[in-house]
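Thread: "does anyone have the structure for this chain?"

Original post by V.I.:
We have the sequence but no experimental structure in hand. Need at least a predicted one for the grant figures.
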Amino acid sequence: MAKCSPNPSPKPYKKQTQRHKSSVTGKQKVKKLQKKLLKVKGKLSTNQNDRRKPKLLKNSRKQGNWLPGMMAIAILLTSGGLLFTLGWISILFMFNPSGLGRLNQLLPAWARISLSRGEQPQTIREITASIKQKQLQAGETIPLSNAGNNSPKPFLLPVLRQRPNCQSDCQEITELRIYQPARESEWQSQSKKYYYLTTQLPVTGPEESFVTAPLGEDERKNQTSSISLPLSQVGQYKDGVPSSGFWFYLRGQRQQVTKAIAYGHIIFYNPQRDRLQKMLSWTSPSGKLPKWQQVTGDEREELVVEQTTGLEPRLKVYQLKSVKLFLNPFQLEEITLQQPAMGDGGYGKALVIARSGLWTPAWQWLQFIKKQRRGLLPATAQAQMDLIGLHSQLTKAQADKSWAAPSQQILAYLIDGRWEKALQVLTKSPQNYEEIANLFQADGGRLWKRTQAALQVNPKRAEVQILAALILAAREGETKVNSWLGKQSHMTAATRRKIKKLLAQLNGEVSPTQVNSTHPTRIVGTAKKNLAVKASAWLPLTDEDNLTPKNNQTWYQIEVTAFHDGQSWQYLPFNSLKLPSDSPSQYLQKKLGIKPNSTIEIITWLPNKEQRNAIASLKAVQLQNGVLTLLAAATTTREQEYSNSHQLQPLAVTTGALEWVQPSPMNFEQLSQEYPEQEEEIIQTIWRSLQTSGDISTDINPELSKLRQLLTNLPVKVVDITNDNSDEILVTISPELISTWKKANSDSKPQQSKQIRTLIFADSGKIIYSEFKPNNSQTLTAIAKLPTANYPVLLVENRQKYTLQRWSKENKRFE
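Reply from O.Q.:
Generated one for you, tokens below.
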């Protein structure tokens, strides 16, 4: 077999390779051709658009610059407006929800805003019920609009609460609320009237220390605590008030010894802000409400708070000032005299003497300054001048008045700066030196401050020097006076001699001949038996009087309530009486108008209420710590031994001391015919008084017709007690009658009352005197008139002592 030799260099298959190569090359050529066509087409396209390209590019850039900005600005403005609108609605909702009523009407029902922050409006009945659920009570509403009777009005509602452990006047105001009528159509279409609670103000009374601050130190002892005192009354100012908003007062009352102090807050309601605001707290020892009146001649009235005590005037005047606050656009700013409103030296000195209480001299000085400046004063200076002028009007009126007591006349002159007239009255009244000295001693430093201010202006004025020395002696003694006199370089020798003479008289060195001659004896007092007489404690009317009781003789110790000294009536305590070292018994006898063996009548009552009189002879007198006591002896009768066991204390009275007043008697049925308009109020007041005192249960509330029937035969008396030319109504209720009423209205056994009690009504039907108060201790014994006095008095037995009470027109009560 032939061997095949290998092929060392085999050749490729060319034909096949070429075919493949030609195929690839064809495709590439097609692609190249396509690229060329595209390139040619691109160039043609580019050449055609070359001229348009710069313009389109420029426009494109402009559109790219302003269009997005405008869109952004439009979005921002829209968002800002929406936020502002929502913010304003929020503010309106917070401060004046009722202002959204119109907006609500434009919204669909599902989008409306609740005006009460989620609460539904309520009727007045529902409001009262919701308050009662909180153990509170709704007070009487005060409307805040003059809209027609058929239109619902916004109103102020006081919320009250019961004070714990309280016997009388137990309701106090704890909150004030403002209600606005619902304006939405769904509530207005209802037959009942619905209201939203839009604002409220918690109420707390002023502190005790603030209320008693205007009083003297002696009167406010132990009365400086931070306890809040209750407020029980709310009222609206209507006449003479600033035109902006609504003004209210809150008032409470505190009895302080003989003063009925009124106190409270001034409240302002701003309808634009729908806001209640406390503007200031006030207190008035005279018991008067603050009042709006024109003081400075400004376009707005001023608020005047009277803090006068006795004859000492004190007025606080507040101006209404605008302030740049959204919630509180007004405030009350007091006119004060602490900083002079002008740099003038004379103006500053005038303010100094005004601050001391010399209102009239300061007013006269300021008038001279104003005249020098041709009537032009800064507004603040004019306000200070007007405040001083307002006080001066009061002191002038007091000084121009004729006073029965020389001490009161001197005080009125001193307060008004009438030094000469005050000294004239003092020197002409030697019998009243003790009373005048007591006046200076009890002044509390106000008169002394006036004299020092006057001497600062004119240190050589003799009348002021004399009065200053007498006032200082009464307050701090002669040692202090002598020290003060040694420093007075402007005092003459004649003035010093006069001061020495008057000081001796004021110290009680008065001879019996200086005392009034005998005058009619007029004495009223309380008598009680004295079984053990200590002779050394008494001043016998004669040296021969033996202070030892005889057989069938009873000794009475008579504490004097009032007596007439020949010029005026004097009342317990008798601090003006100061015994001289020489003949003190004769001094008291001439003061009282008595002499040895003068008689006095002792009036007692038997258990059957019959009156028995006994005549007692005066034997001795006694004066200790302002208490004047007489010792008298009377022949004892068997009836008097058993009298007065459970009745009133014996009454001691001299002949002619009292003129008894006999009221016109009638029964309640006759009274109803004469006073038909007051009948219902009087009936309701009588029944409430019986319930307040605990005589009748509060659960017993008969109908008016039944009460009228119960009171048909009730004894009633009509008499003018307040001296106003109109009759008052006295209702006396016996224990037996109360028991009968209890038995008629309750199955339980009635508890017997202890004494006859009295109610007194004014002709308007308002109660002005009551013995049905809890823990009452006084009983009206009689009505009388004092000789030489043109007014009636009540003779009242209080805690086994008789007092005389007179109606006070200023304080609207018996004092």
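V.I.: this helps a lot. The two ends are 173 Å apart (CA to CA).
O.Q.: and Residues 53-95 form the longest helix (43 residues).
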